[in-house]
Write a structure and sequence with these properties.
The complex is a heterodimer of chains A (531) and B (526). By secondary structure, chain A is an all-alpha fold. Chain A has 24 helices and five strands. Chains A and B meet through strand 1 and helix 19 of A and helix 4, strand 6, strand 9, strand 10 and helix 7 of B.
Chain lengths: 531, 526
């Protein structure tokens, strides 16, 4: 069998200009679209118009919001189970009961995902969900966390609410909050950690994956030793969450709340790194509030003091990959270092870091346009944002099922290291499915819906204007004149430029046909997969 | 296939262990002569019997009275079994199956039955144990770790360094299923495709090659654009290749041979794809519902287990007849896998619970499969603490046979795939292309042990045709190392190397010369 070499050119440039100074100009259409493609799953035509002519700083405040918007409400059906405990299916129950409970959990989990995906689809400004999802991809939680056990959906809902609430906050506060998050307690085994046998699972992942990485991104110096993991684990002993009905030792009437078991806490001293010291505590001090302040928050103080720049680099790198370009090269450490310094100097406030990055000249540099491969939600939610029709109203759970086949099952990444992302999103299985889903979606749009969609663009009655608007709406970077003229022919569908205004105003079927063929062609271009 | 690059890569690996360049002076440039897996025409078919096939009611220990004691409800009496040579088959493997079914295949030497396949510290969860089989990794104590890559996925990814930028012209593997089996997953992505219907697969991929040109710039955007372009084109090419082979193959094969079951239809489709010229290396098929906690057998020695075994035997037998008629049977190697066997005791509900070690079928052409019964009979008087049959041979021993003797792997590749070394059992004969034979390092590809049987003392004899790094190791039958005799650089010449083994038993000596393995079995009887 022969090998086909389909692509030889494979050299990666680095981001040379890492100019984080503020871009103070007013954004043109191209810049506004770039801004919104990265800060949302995909903008609507109206959202683009809202941002054009604003400076990035002005636009950032609109898109990001000030954090005062209320949290989304759960559905009525979710309200029936969000506070309802079920038995632990692994508690030696008869097999049919166990399967029954697991079935309930699975159904609730699906409801939760449908709800979260609906928030993504329906979100207006401020855009909340993309930043929530970003945090969720770092602080991985797997619903099927063990090969046997499932995390109860109410705990996942609470985890989601915490991430949403803290999406602008200091990264240190997020670390404290998620450390005692019920779903994380279960997932990374602190739920089983006691004074005599501190469980090291979480402490290791906290440092390796959630905050600083094994080694510093710039210097390469090792960030921690096995001894640091052991000492940190001792500080985190004694925490449990009310996860199951009839759970031994659980406080009454506090479903899915985290609680402290003083007998399971290690009261001795803990020492991490060079200067990190937690002093021993007395029996009187061994209470939920004091241990949380002194040992959990105290541990975070140690990590963020002793390894502050490593953490700042590690998180800046993740933000760069998620929002700017997924494959930075070695020399991009220049940008990472600048972002990290700013992050460090600003108390690890995510909101401030985002604003610095998204309003920078760097963010608007030419090489960052259109270079991100759309993630499954950027593709699927983006598609529904573009045309404004909700697939789940056509068939319930449809978006979730498509997300699963496109290989991003929310709250169930392959492992604690999260999804590999970037080019792994597109392969010979998922690419044909992406095109198929897009075409199926196009089929459920009526002719009038397509024409209404076109009419959302300014000057739609001018063919050339509409064409330019549509092309830049679907494709992130300017295209060659050859491609333009080919696509124009498809869109015009035999209608002359002079006749266009009359045709579209009268909802001429030929306009709808042209639009349909044009959109279908867009779906089949490589750049439709980029943003 | 870009052979030059392959040779360089492999040579570099080999050079790491061995010699200084000066030893090679005066000789030709060293040639790495292992089989080029992309060019050989071997086809491997893996049939998963999911749910845990009951090995004890498939090949029946009818001469072991213990069997009837521990299976009072579902033990199959000797008169209900089919005797073939000295084993007893479940009659569903034979009766109502064309061409004498598995009985005939066994008598012809085209079918090997390997008993006692399993692994250390067995896991009794279907899904976990299935993952262990498909991944080729036995994590033992770390049993919550998700297994995300398959043994063949890792192997193909290792052999295709530029994947997915450089891809085989046809899908390297096909899962006849809705999704790609874990077996073919790798860190480079899915090494293969999944399909259940070539026409549907064609519709999904046809015409996806972008009408737009590749971009010539080198910035981020151009790189990612070209990446998507490449994947789109691959999807298109594969859909066309599969469809073209299927349409052509359907006009060639003898479709009348096949029964009506879904499994037979799947094998028929595979036959058409092979006959039509698709160069896919591995096909994966899954037959579910082997999990018989109850009613696996009805009173008249019928029931679900019989139905599924019958379906299995029919599909295999029909497919091999078709392969024979169409002249490609030499290329085929098939094997069954199953995540575990059943509990030795029946459970009182006319069923069995999850077990551990079980048996495997391996079939093909009699020239290349050493048909017969391999390993010892299951020892029902020596069960593990849960009442399960103990394993004799690690499942990866059989996978090593497939990798080394069908897919061109070197022993070093095998270590890369499993993280440890396994010795093939010799159930398969090596079937490789001519390049291998012409360049064989060991004269006639033969090593001899003399005397054989021996009293524990003897000589390993072979003729090395060219200087090579040689590893001589004696293994016991379950694939574990007994002793390393020699690991060093040897000049060409005739060698007689003494060995000394302490205990009675059957052993296998393995001689690896520059990554090519040769083996010979011998028996010690003091």
């Amino acid at each position: 069998m022969k090998l086909l070499n389909l692509l030889k050119n494979n050299n990666y440039p680095s981001i040379l200009a890492g100019d984080l100074s503020e871009f103070t100009g007013k954004m043109n259409k191209k810049q506004a679209q770039h801004f919104l493609r990265r800060l949302t799953f995909h903008p609507t035509p109206e959202q683009i118009n809202q941002i054009i002519g604003k400076t990035p700083a002005e636009a950032f405040d609109i898109v990001f919001g000030d954090g005062t918007n209320p949290a989304p409400q759960p559905t009525n059906s979710m309200n029936n189970w969000l506070n309802k405990l079920e038995e632990n299916p692994l508690d030696d129950l008869p097999l049919d009961i166990r399967f029954q409970i697991e079935g309930i959990q699975k159904a609730h989990y699906n409801e939760l995902l449908d709800w979260w995906l609906a928030q993504m689809k329906n979100s207006t400004f401020p855009e909340v969900e993309k930043f929530t999802l970003f945090l969720s991809t770092i602080w991985s939680i797997e619903f099927t966390y063990d090969t046997e056990a499932l995390i109860p959906a109410p705990l996942l809902y609470r985890n989601n609410a915490t991430l949403r609430k803290l999406r602008f906050s200091s990264y240190k506060d997020i670390a404290s909050a998620i450390t005692l998050d019920g779903a994380m307690l279960l997932y990374q085994s602190l739920f089983y950690s006691g004074g005599s046998a501190p469980n090291e699972n979480y402490m290791r992942e906290l440092m390796e994956l959630f905050t600083m990485g094994i080694g510093d991104l710039d210097t390469g110096a090792g960030n921690y030793t096995e001894a640091d993991i052991r000492e940190g684990s001792k500080a985190l002993t004694g925490w449990r969450t009310v996860a199951y009905l009839g759970q031994p030792g659980a406080p009454a009437n506090k479903p899915f709340e985290t609680f402290f078991v003083r007998d399971l806490h290690d009261k001795g001293s803990k020492k991490l790194f060079q200067f990190g010291q937690i002093d021993p505590i007395t029996d009187d001090e061994n209470t939920q509030d004091l241990v949380k302040a002194k040992e959990v928050d105290g541990l975070m103080d140690i990590l963020f003091t002793e390894r502050g720049m490593s953490i700042a680099r590690f998180i800046s790198d993740k933000i760069l990959r998620y929002f700017c370009y997924s494959n930075p090269t070695g020399s991009d450490i220049n940008v990472i270092n600048q972002l990290a310094q700013y992050f460090y100097d600003n108390n690890f406030e995510l909101g401030k870091l985002y604003k610095k990055l998204f309003t920078s000249n760097f963010f608007f540099s030419e090489e960052l346009y259109g270079c991100q491969i759309k993630t499954p939600p950027e593709f699927l939610i983006g598609l529904q944002k573009m045309f404004g029709k909700d697939l789940d109203k056509v068939q319930s759970g449809k978006t979730r099922k498509m997300m699963n086949t496109l290989e991003q099952v929310l709250y169930d990444p392959p492992n604690v290291g999260s999804w590999k992302a970037y080019r792994t999103w597109i392969n010979t299985n998922t690419y044909p499915l992406r095109v198929q889903y897009a075409n199926e979606y196009l089929e459920i749009l009526t002719d009038n819906e397509l024409i209404d969609f076109a009419k959302k663009f300014e000057d739609y009655s001018n063919f050339e204007n509409l064409f330019d608007n549509l092309i830049s709406y679907f494709l992130p970077v300017e295209i060659s004149t050859e491609r333009q003229s080919e696509y124009k022919t498809i869109l015009a569908n035999g209608i002359s430029t002079a006749d266009w205004a009359t045709a579209i105003e009268s909802n001429d079927i030929k306009v709808a046909q042209g639009l349909r063929n044009f959109v279908k062609r867009m779906f089949a271009t490589p750049d439709f997969q980029l943003c | 296939m870009n052979r030059r690059r392959f040779i360089q890569t492999t040579a570099a690996v080999g050079a790491g262990i061995t010699l200084t360049p000066k030893l090679l002076k005066g000789f030709d440039e060293p040639q790495i002569v292992q089989d080029d897996f992309l060019e050989n025409d071997n086809v491997v078919i893996i049939l998963e019997l999911f749910g845990g096939n009951d090995g004890l009611n498939t090949i029946i220990p009818a001469e072991d009275s213990e069997y009837y004691k521990i299976r009072p409800n579902i033990g199959i009496p000797v008169e209900e079994a089919v005797k073939v040579n000295d084993i007893y088959m479940n009659k569903a493997l034979v009766e109502d199956v064309s061409n004498g079914g598995m009985k005939r295949m066994f008598e012809d030497g085209r079918l090997a039955i390997v008993e006692g396949i399993g692994y250390d510290q067995p896991n009794l969860s279907h899904f976990r144990s299935e993952d262990i089989w498909l991944s080729g990794i036995n994590p033992k104590s770390n049993n919550n770790k998700k297994l995300l890559e398959g043994w063949l996925g890792r192997y193909f990814a290792h052999k295709l360094p530029n994947y997915p930028m450089e891809i085989p012209e046809h899908p390297i593997s096909i899962s006849i299923d809705g999704a790609i089996s874990l077996m073919f997953k790798s860190e480079k992505g899915d090494m293969g495709v999944a399909l259940t219907d070539p026409d549907e697969f064609y519709k999904l991929g046809a015409g996806l090659t972008p009408k737009e040109d590749l971009l010539t710039g080198k910035n981020y955007y151009d790189n990612e654009y070209n990446f998507v372009h490449t994947i789109a084109r691959q999807s298109d090419l594969y859909s066309q290749a599969v469809k073209a082979a299927y349409d052509k193959g359907m006009t060639i094969i003898n479709g009348d041979l096949y029964s009506d079951s879904n499994l037979s239809k799947k094998f028929k489709m595979i036959s058409a794809l092979i006959a039509g010229g698709l160069k896919t290396k591995v096909f994966f098929v899954k037959l579910s519902n082997f999990d018989f906690h109850a009613q696996q057998m009805n009173t008249a020695f019928t029931g679900q287990h019989f139905v599924l075994l019958n379906e299995t035997a029919k599909a295999i037998s029909e497919f091999m007849q078709d392969a024979l008629e169409n002249g490609y049977s030499e290329r085929i190697t098939g094997m069954t896998i199953s995540e575990f066997g059943r509990r030795a005791y029946d459970n009182g509900s006319r069923g069995t619970d999850h077990g551990a070690a079980s048996m495997q079928f391996i079939w093909g052409h009699d020239k290349f499969v050493n048909g017969g019964y391999w390993n010892n009979r299951p020892n029902l008087n020596d069960l593990d603490q849960y009442g399960n049959v103990k394993f004799q041979t690690d499942y990866r021993v059989i996978f090593t046979e497939i990798l080394e003797k069908r897919l061109g792997a070197t022993p070093e590749d095998v270590i890369k795939v499993f993280g440890e070394s396994f010795l093939p059992l010799n159930v398969l004969e090596r079937r490789v292309n001519s390049i291998f034979n012409q360049n064989a390092q060991i004269a006639n590809g033969k090593i001899l042990v003399s005397p054989n049987p021996n009293s524990g003392v003897g000589k390993i004899r072979f003729e090395l045709k060219k200087p090579a790094f040689v590893d001589i190791t004696i293994f016991n039958l379950n694939g574990k190392v007994n002793q390393v005799i020699q690991r060093s650089y040897l000049f060409e010449g005739y060698y007689k190397i003494p060995f000394n083994v302490n205990s009675n038993g059957t052993y296998i000596v393995s001689v690896i010369a520059d990554n090519n393995r040769f083996t010979e079995k011998f028996t010690v009887f003091k």
